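Regression test attached.
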Amino acid sequence: MATFCIAHLYPDLMNLYGDRGNLICLQKRLQWYGHDCLVQPVNLNSEVDYSTFDMIFMGGGSDREQGLVYRDLLRRADQLWKQLDAGLPALFICGAYQLLGTHYESADGKQLKGLGFFNLCTRSEKERLIGNIVLACRINQQIITVVGFENHGGRTYLEDKSLEPFGMVLAGFGNNGEDGQEGVRYKNLIGTYLHGPLLPKNPAVADYFIHMMAARKGIEITGTLNDRLEDFAHQQIKRRILGS
Amino acid sequence: MQVIRRVMAIAAAKLLICLSRLFGYHGTDFPGRVARKIDPDILKKLGANVQEEIFIITGTNGKTTTTNMIARILEEKGYSFVHNRAGANMVTGITTAFIKESNLLGNRPYEYALLETDEANVPLLLKELTPRVVLITNFFRDQLDRYGELDRIISLIKDAVRNTDIELVLNADDPLVVHFQNDTGLHCWYYGFDDTDYDLFQGEESREGRFCAFCGEELQYERFHYAQLGKFNCPRCGSRNPRRNFTGHDLRMTPQIHFFVNNIEIHSPYLGFYNAYNILAAVAVAKLVGIQDEIVQRAIASYQPRAGRMEQFLIGDKKAIQILVKNPTGLNQTLAALNTDPASKSLFFALNDNAADGRDVSWIWDAQIENIAHPSAAIKGITCSGLRSGDAALRFKYAGFNEEIITVESDLEAGIKACLDMEAEVYYFLCTYTTLFASRKILSRLARKTTRPRPKYNLAQPAAGGE
C-alpha cells in the first residue's frame, strides 16, 4: 500500500460547479485499489514545493478570483512548469485551464496575463457557452467518449498548432465553439472546460491519472474496479445528448 | 374608460384562470400577464383594495414556507387576505393572485396581502405596491451566483426601499442581510436564534460569502446555526449581529421542531433548522401585526407541510416524507434533518436536469452527502431516479455508501416502488423541482390505494408550487 498526495490549488477560490468531486473520485478510487490518498490544500501565500506531490488539481473560479490566484502562482511558476514538463499528472479545469495560457481578455476588454506555459489564449464574451458536452479523446491509445458540462464565457484558441487538444467535440461547444477542439493535453497534464465534475462519470480518465501517478512512484496498480454505476451514468448522459 | 379597462382585464384573467384549472395547469403567471397587457395599472388599482397592510416576503430560501405559515396564522385569526399561494412569485403571478380574490369590478376589499416575491422582482413590485413590511429570510450564494448576480439584486432591492416608509424584517444571523439598516436608514426589526445545541463551530460550506459587508474582511464566527447564518463579528471594523427583537431560544428537534420565541412556546410538525428559521420569521410578522400568542401557537402547531416541504404520506403502514431539494444549501439542510431522525430509512433521490431544475447537475457534488454516509444515519437503501439517476447514484457511491445498497430506477414510478420495497421505518423522497409533482401524484395515489383517508395527513391539500 502506497500513499499518494494530491495538491488542491486554492480550494477556497477555485471550486465551481462541483469541481471538488474530481478529488473525491481520485481519492476513493485509489482507496479501492488498496492505496491511500491525501489531498493537501494549497492556499494563497502558502509555501509549496511542487516536487513533493503526485498530482496537481485546480478548479474554476470567477475573473476576480483568477486574478488573485495568478499573482500567487507566478511566485513559483518556474518550479511548477519544471514538474509539469517532467510529467507530473495535473488536471486544470475552466478558469485554471485558462491561466495556463499567455493571456485572458475579459468581456469588458481588460487583459489579464496568464502563466504562459502554453501558447494558447482566451477571449471572453458576454454570451456564455453552457450545456452538456461529449468529446472523443484518446486515452491509453484508445478513442473513448468523455462526458461533462461546460459553462464558460471564455473562448480559448490553441495558437500553437502543434498543441494537442484534450479531445474533439462530438456535441457541445468546447474551446471556442468554432474549431471542434476541447481543452489541452501536454504530457500528463489535462486542461479542460469540463465540469460535472469530470472524473466520476469518466472513470477511464480517472484511472489514467491514477496509473500515471503510480508509474512515477514505481508502483503497479492491480485489479479492476466495478464501474457499473460509472458506466451507467456515462451512457445515460451520452444517450441523452447524442440520442442513440 | 378606466373602469372598463379594469373590468376587461379582470374578466379576461378570471376566464384564463378557469381555463387553466380545467386543463389541470398550476401555472398562474399567464392570466396576470394578459391582465397587465389590457390594463397596465391593474395591480396598482387592486393593491389599493388592501385595507390594512401589504407584506412582501423574499430571500433565497424559505420564502414559500414562511409565507404559507403567516397565511395560516392570518387564517386562524379570521382575516381576509390575498396570497400568491401557488408559488408564482413574479409580478405577473402576484397580479393573478390579486385578480383571483377580486370581484369583477375590482373593488372588493381585503384586510391583508401576503406576497411571496422572487428577489429580482422586489424592485418591480415596489413600483406598483406600497407594503408596510418587507421580510428578507436570507441570501445564499448558490452555484448560479458566481458572477455577482446576488450582489446586484441586493443593491437593487436597497435602492427600491430607500426613502420609503417600509419597515424591514431581517434575519439577524445572516451577514448578507444585516447591512440593510445602514444602507437604507429604514426601521428594521430583527429575528434570530440564541445559541442552540445544534450549532457547529466550523463552517461546512467554505464558499459561502462569509465576508464583512462593510469592509470586506473575512468574518469570524463564534458559532454557525447553518450555512453562513450564525454568531459573527468582523475583526477589522467590529460589525456584528444586530440586537434581536425576536429571539428563538431553547430549540429542540425531536425531530419535530420545539422552541420559544420571546418566551412564547412553539411546536411544529416540521423538521430541520431551516424550518425553525421559517417559523421564527412567521411568528415575528404575526407579532408585528399584533396577533395573540395562542392563535400563533395553534396555527403553527396545526400547519401541515405542503408539497415538497416535508409533506407526509401514509402508504399502507409506511411513513413517507417528500422534500424538495434544489441547491446544495437546501440539500445540506435536508441531510441535517435526516441526521436528527434516528429511525431506519430508505432514501429516494430523483434528479432531473430540465430548465426548472437547472441544466447543470454538478451542484450535488457541492452538497455534503458524506454527512449521512455513516451508520448512525441508519440509511438502509438508496434509490436514484429521474433523468440523471446515474449522476445521483455516483454521488452517493463516492460519498462512501456501499454500492450494494444503491438502486438505479430512472422511471419515477418504478423508483418510488423500489424505495418502498426496502425494509425501513421511514421513507424519504428527495425530489428536484420537475420530479416533485409527478412523484407527489404517484405517492398520493399509492396512499389512497392503501389507506383509508385520515384527516391527520390531509392528502386533499391543493398542490402548491415552488419558489
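Expected vs. actual: identical. The interface with chain A takes residues 143, 146-148, 206-207, 359-366, 387-391, 393-395, 397-400, 403, 406, 408, 410 of chain B (CB under 8 Å).
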